[in-house]
Each structure stands twice: as C-alpha cells, then as structure tokens.
Amino acid sequence: MPLTDLDLDDLRTYRPDLTAPAGFDAFWADTLAGARAADGPVTARLRTDTRLTAFDVYDVRFPGWRGEPVAAWLILPRRTTEPLPVIVKYIGYSGGRALPGEHLLPPAAGYAHLVVDSRGQGHDTPDHGEGDGTQWAEGFMTRGIDAPENYYYRRLITDCVRALDALPHLPGTDPARAIVSGASQGGGLALAVAALAPGQVAALLSDVPFLCHFRRAVRITGDGPYPEIAKYLRWHSREKEEQTLATLDHFDGVHFAPRASAPALFSVGLMDPVCPPSTVFAAYHRYGGPAAIEVWNFADHGGGYGSTPLKQLDWLAEQGLAPKTA
Hints:
- The structure is a single chain.
- The chain is α/β, with parallel strands linked by helices and 326 residues long.
- It has one domain: Rossmann fold (3-Layer(aba) Sandwich), CATH 3.40.50.1820.
- The chain has helices spanning 8-11, 24-38, 105-108, 152-166, 185-196, 214-220, 226-249, 253-256, 277-285, 307-318, and strands at residues 43-47, 55-63, 69-77, 84-90, 112-116, 173-183, 203-207, 264-269, 291-296.
- It has a 9-stranded mixed sheet with strand order 1-2-3-5-4-6-7-8-9, with helices on both faces.
- Strand 2 and strand 3 (69-77) form a beta hairpin.
- The longest helix has 24 residues, at 226-249.
- InterPro entries: AB_hydrolase_fold (IPR029058), AXE1_dom (IPR008391), CE7 (IPR039069).
- This is Cephalosporin-C deacetylase.
- It comes from Kitasatospora saccharophila.
C-alpha cells in the first residue's frame, strides 16, 4: 500500500488556516447544559456470568443526550480496594461496546476501564434522531446533516462527555485521573471530549483519529466513512455544499483541538486510506496542550496494531498516570 497523502516532511509543517464557526463555543455550552439539565440515574450492575475470574464487570447505564440512557461496560481488576485511574474508551465507526472480553488489556494493566457504547451503532443504545432525519447515504455521516442542531454527532459527542460526568457515581474509578481514549471515530470523540470537558480530563489518547479536517477529508478520501458525505454532496452539491460543510465545522477535531489542554498522545499511519495523515496532523498541530504524535510509517488504518497499547501505557506512566498495581 502506498502513501495516501503528503510525505512526512510536508506533514510536519502542514498548518492550514482554519477558523471555527461563529458561535462554536456557545453551541456546545448550550448543548451540554441541556443534557445535564435533563440528567437521569447512573446504574452499575455487577455481572456474575462472564467467567472472567480476574476482573469485575459492571453493566452501566448513564444519562446522555437529553437524559437518554447510554450503555457502557465498567471493567475493574478483581478485588479493587481503592479508586483507580480510569481509561474511558470510545468506539470506532459502526461499532458498539460489544462484549466485555474484548476490552481486557487496560484492567489487566491495573486501570479501571469504562467502555462507552455508540448510540445507534452499537446494540444497546438506540438513536432516536432529530430534525428532518436526513440520512441520504449508508451509515451515520449524513444523519441530520441539514443543520448542526440536528446532526448525529451532536448527540454522540454529548453522550461521550456525559460519560465523564458519570464517573463519580461508579465504583473503583478516580474521576481526577480520567484518561479519554479511542481509535478512528473513538479518537475523534476523545479529542472532542478533551476540549469540551477540560477540567475532567487528565490525559488524551487519540489513535488515528477520524472526524478531523472535514473540508479536506471529504475531498481526498476514497475509503471508510468520509465518502458517505461525498456521495451525498454528489447529488446535492449545488444547493447544499456550503450548508453541509458549515454543519460539519461544528464537529471538527481541528476546532476542538485548540480548546483542549490535557497532555495528549496522538498517532497516525502514513498509509492510512481512511483517515488521511494530513487531517490528523492538522488537528495535532492545533492542539492546545502538550502533545506528542507516534508516526507509523508503513501503517494503514490499523496504526501500530498491537504495539499501540504498549506505547500508550509507557506514555501514561511518564505522565504519572500509571496505577499503583501496575
């Protein structure tokens, strides 16, 4: 597989001039205030049927967008006796929280692990939609794209922020040491949360992030979810192109990045056909806090594969966020 974008020297200097839409901060402040006003219960039910003898697994529900319940798994090392740093994981596109056995590496390393379902994409958190329900192409990228108020990612990002609000109500977690994380869509969601809840995030792990630099990504990407938007614009371009791109600007990692301040570790694959490297670097270069980026020269969208968690655990230890049991 060849390079899919600029070469590394050009990526290291790629700093496009980008401006957040007017009212960006007010839009998100109002969105989160509305979700928190709706509120709802946080529940954590201990599962006794997993056969995971080294771990305690809780089936969690917490209030998300408009107080609607969002599913999550909370996985702890067995017999946790004190609050642990917690890795909050957001999921890649078209996936949900799946099964607890798929998320054992962080608790095996001594962390609490909260795995957040993606509304509509997983099986346990439905998405009821907003506005005119626009969804022209397959998937979620055009759902409600007629206006920022209706767009699917307004609801999903709100859910992800509210996961941090739930931490004080969950066993075994230390909200003061919350690490937001994810790959692809999950990496983009984690970046958004780091910006929208800066006082609640101790560190960010954003692996090959999606949802960054939309205006470039939809023009140069031939694989993955971005082409859903290109297909939509192919038929509606003349009357809806700028309206659509203006909607996407409200959910773009390049605009969230300057508003985040927690230490961050990004990663990028230079042969990634799904999240072009220039879109990742555009967000990374604008990040508002201390940040490093792991570059995988010959990687596709899988990035560093099995090497990535090891790099992340080492980096978290450098930030003083290793659990005492690790």
